[in-house]
Every structure is written in C-alpha cells, then in structure tokens.
Amino acid sequence: MNKILIGFLLTLPGILLIVIAVSFGWFLFPLIIHDKIVENVRLIAGSETWGKWKEAPIPIYLNFYIHHVTNPDEVEHGLKPKFLEKGPYAYRQKRVKVDIKQEDGLNTVKYREVKTYFFDKKISGNNSEDDLVNVPNIPFVGVVHAVQKMLPIDFVVGLVGNVVLQHETLMRRNVSVGELLFTGFDVTKYTRSLLARRLPKEFKGGRFGLYKGKNGTESPEWEVYTGYDSSEKFGRVKTWDSKSDLLFWRRFSECDKIKGTDGSVFQPFLTKQSQIEAFSPDVCRSITLIFENETEYKGVPGYRFTTPAWVFADPRNRPENQCFCLEDDIEKCPYAGVLPLESCMNAPVYSSSPYFLGADVRYLVESGLDSPNREKHRTFIDIEPTTGLILRAHKRLQISLEVKQHRKVKAFQNMQSDRMLFPLIWADENAALDDALVEDLKGKLLTPLQIVGIAKWALLILGIILFLVGLCVFAVKYILATDLSGISEKLKDMRASSITSLK
C-alpha cells in the first residue's frame, strides 16, 4: 500500500507544475504586465512616460523635396511644366511641450508645443539651403485668387493683377530653398500696396515662406486626455486651439471633429483589428490608419498601420467624405486622393500623397510628374502593439497650388487649361527609435515576456512528464500490489476443464 501511495504522490509535482505554468504563464503574468503598462502609460507628472512626452527623445526629421521647374519660360507661354526633384533638404526637429497645465483632476493636460528646426548637412548631402529653384509665384497666385473670390469682377481682378502687382509673373525664378521654406522671400510689393490690410498673416514682415513663422514658435493650445481614468483615452485630443470642432469643414459634420491623438502617442494593447486615429494640423483634419501587416524593427516585432484608400476617396463615390468639400455642386469637388486646404490655410493649396500616390490619375497626367513609388511616397507607422510605442514612422505629404486661368490677368492668359494643381513640394516627416531606446524597450518588455514564454512552456512540459512518470509508477505499483492468486486458481480450473472436455 505504501508503494501505491508513493506512485500516486509522484504525480502531484507534475500537476502542481502544470497548474503553475497555466495560471502564472497564461493568466497571472499577462495580468501583471497589463497593469504595469496601464500604470506607466499615463501623462502624469513624474512618470516615465511624462518625461519622454514632454520632450521627444527620438530623433525626428523633416525632409523636404522641391518640385523644381526647369522650363519656367515655356510654362508662362502655355506649355506643360517639366519637373526636377531637388532634395532632400533635411531638418532635425526638436519638440518641447511648454505652458503645461494639469486640469480636470488628472484626466487632461493642456500644453503648447514648440518645434525648432535645424538644417542637417549630413542627411542633406550635397543639397544646400542656398540652392536656387523655380516654383509658381505663390503670393501672386494666392492674392489674385482671393480677389477673384471676394470680388468676382473681371475689371477689379485685372486691376490688381496688371496694375497693383504689375511686373509679377506666373513663375518665381531663382528662389533659394531657405527662403522658400523658412526665412521667406521679399513681398514688400504686396505689403506696401493698397492690398496690405487684406493680406493674410503669412505676408507679415514683408516676407513670404511656406514654413515662415513655424520655426521656434508656440503652437495653438492642445488639451489631451492623460489616460489616468482609462488607458483607451491615452493621448486622445479633447480640444485644439480651445475648440473641439475644427470649423474648417461643414459645420457639425464628422469631418469637422477632432479625433484621435496628435500622432506622437497611441493607446496600448493594439490588435490587428484596431483602427488608430491622429489629428494633423498640417492637413487640417483627423486621419484614420488601419493594420496592414506584421513588421519588425531592430528585433522588435510590431504592427504596421497605413492610411486606407477610403480616407481620401472621391466624395462622389463615398458620401462620408462629402463634408470635406465646401462646394455647393459636388461635381466641383476634388477627385480621389486630394484634399482642399483653403478653408484653414487661406490659400488655394491642396494636400495629397507625394506624386499623387493613390489619387485620381488625372492629377498625375495634368501635372506631368513622374509616376509615384509606393515604398518611397506612402505614409505608415510601425507600432509595438502591447505598449503602443512608435517604432518607426513616415508621414509623407505633398502640397500643390491651384492655378486658375484669368482672362483679364496677363500672367494667367496663356495657361494650357482652365485650372491645374501645380505641385510645389513634398515632405517626409520621419522618426525612429534609436539603439538605446530599442534596448530599453527590450529590457523592460520583450525580454521579460520571452523569459516567461520559455519558462511557462518548460514548466508545462516538465509537469506533463512528471505527471506521466508518476502515473506510470502508480499503475505499475498498483498492478504489482494486486493479489494475483485468485486469478492463478481460475486459470488452473479453466485449464483442467479444457483437458477434461478433450477426453
């Protein structure tokens, strides 16, 4: 009997190891990790996340590519432009949160962000801010467009285009890249004219540049959820510039709502079914991204999220996108892949993917640009799904200028069509974890998960082996301990009976 008991007891360690492996490896440890991540993924002063959020620790670059026009004279005589891409002109971007105020208990935080740009000679290679480019005369086109829209009278438009702004041309030649982007080129002809009071803030100081006034200045105020009460709200924008609606698109529509985060953080515990959203002031709207495929960055597995085609689908085919068009006649709305920004930029500019990737083919044909390269021109974000940490990201955006023909303005009389989208520049805002941050992520998350993953299977297998060994010992001991004498007597009787019957 003691031998049977010993065999039975041998199964107990196996059962215990199986219980430990299942309960700890599949239930308890994941729960501990979940709670630890929820605790850390909060915008609370003093937390680890707070410091990294306050001042971005990863290198961020904004690389510009200019659509340089090689035949400006021919363009002004009605021929199609010929483009030469110049770039990259790379700028290291430093982001710092300022005027931080913790409000609504600990549920929200308000702040402004200062972005400072530093030209990076190494990444820019042989390209310099002193390089000269030919581009459309953006201030001239914008002012004529504004006058046409405000006072659609041919005489008035002609007076402004031919007299007030005489000698201005459709193309602007030999503009330095630095002036085009940040320092601005001279527009005192505009600021000293009778148009001065009507000019937008971009003309301030008598200089005009695409990014003038955005280097080292504070952004409008953001208010975001800290994730204190719910990790699902982590980083989500509550208000921007004191507004919960943008007032750029059709009032009270879904298009006009601010959705998602500011694009620098995302909620943890993402799945392949998750849709992430980010509000981007650069395009004056929120963008949705969906899971595309699994990926890996420096040994860290991640999920790649990209913008689906329906986000910028033709409003004629997708009613949900009609609120992004402010035209009364839907036939005047842009086609797929192009978004009008005049309502928030005060200029006839449009955003799209570089080289009109994914847009209606007519834009590419009309512009004369080369065909896009999907890998080089698309937007994507690689995210570690458990923490929501961005591993690598590329936000790529092209800005084009709408140029319309005006019968009474000499500079626009020779245009080849009534209107066209004239590509200006495209930019690649990109960021990636450096080696130190990757190792930090591995040490705090991936390595413990791997250790637990190995340990739980090892314990489970060992437990099963011990259980089976104990079970075998139990069975053998049971058999050996069983009284076989009765069976032997029965076998003898059966044998005797068989012999008797044969006789």
UniProtKB/TrEMBL annotation:
Q: What's the protein's topology in the membrane?
A: Multi-pass membrane protein
In which compartments does the protein localize? Cell membrane
Question: Any stretches that span the bilayer, and where are they?
Answer: 7-29, 457-480
- Which is one Pfam family of this protein? CD36
InterPro entries membership:
CD36/SCARB1/SNMP1 (IPR005428), CD36_fam (IPR002159)
Q: Which UniProt keywords apply?
A: Cell membrane, Disulfide bond, Glycoprotein, Membrane, Receptor, Transmembrane, Transmembrane helix
Report the family membership: Belongs to the CD36 family.
Protein's recorded name: Lysosome membrane protein 2
Q: What is the originating organism of this protein? A: Orchesella dallaii
